[in-house]
Write a structure and sequence with these properties.
The structure is a homodimer of 148-residue chains. The first copy, chain A, has helices at 13-21, 24-34, 40-46, 55-65, 86-89, 92-105; strands at residues 68-72, 80-84, 114-118, 143-147. By secondary structure, chain A is an alpha+beta fold. In chain A, a hairpin with a 7-residue loop joins strand 1 (68-72) and strand 2 (80-84). Chain A is globular and about 55 Å long. At the A-B interface, helix 1, helix 2, helix 6, strand 3 and strand 4 of A face helix 1, helix 2, helix 6, strand 3 and strand 4 of B. Strand 4 of chain A pairs antiparallel with strand 3 (114-118) of chain B.
Amino acid sequence: MPTHIRHRRSDCPIARSLDVLGDKWTLLIIREALSGTTRFMDFSRALPKLARTIPSARLQRLVDIGVIETIPVSPTSLYHECVLTEMGHQLFPVVTALRQWGNDYLFEPSEPRQCLVDRRTETPIASTQVHSADGQVVLPEDTELVMR
Amino acid sequence: MPTHIRHRRSDCPIARSLDVLGDKWTLLIIREALSGTTRFMDFSRALPKLARTIPSARLQRLVDIGVIETIPVSPTSLYHECVLTEMGHQLFPVVTALRQWGNDYLFEPSEPRQCLVDRRTETPIASTQVHSADGQVVLPEDTELVMR
């Protein structure tokens, strides 16, 4: 964890994640980065009009947190692109689970919707589920919280 | 989808989910409901002091959306409890993925942390991952978005 970030000291990792990911636009920027967007202009274009002044501050915040890093496009270039760090890549399950829930519950049956498919097979990816260490599907009532 | 809810008409299911789940407190209320909280007072107690006036409006919003329903404690009781609907239960992967990401990246190594374990075995549940229909782990670059 970058030491210059001061998260609110909740002992709940969900609260800490939400402190960091904060508002809707932050997660939509991460959605874009996960789909391969690297240029600042492209992040701006991908957000609704109202939010187009927002990406600059949000991207800087994600760099500060350690989710995105900026790297020169080439060794001699002044231009930088924004790419996800490992920490950023690991948000893929969060974003995918949100996508699937939205598709399942927030679209009318007749509405066309975006579907994430496996490039190899063109089949939709599986529903995100929670699994035990031995691979069984786990429901909330099968779990408990312990301090470790 | 309850027809009285007007989501912003984004064609992105992530944006729609974030419209509905909105702010941090909403997801923390869902966290509580997933861990078995049903009484209004217990939702209030589980949130940080500053947020204790918030649950009433948030719970009502979650009822309107269809994530939580209120049911009488007994057939003759005036008291109601708040329980997750199927739509609400299906947020378990979202909340679990946020929990794991927070635990992995937002705690100092020396900090004790909450760990979600399988009740049967007391072992931590597996890291949430994205899988293809045939059970392979899928990374962002293995996927593409199509309209269906």
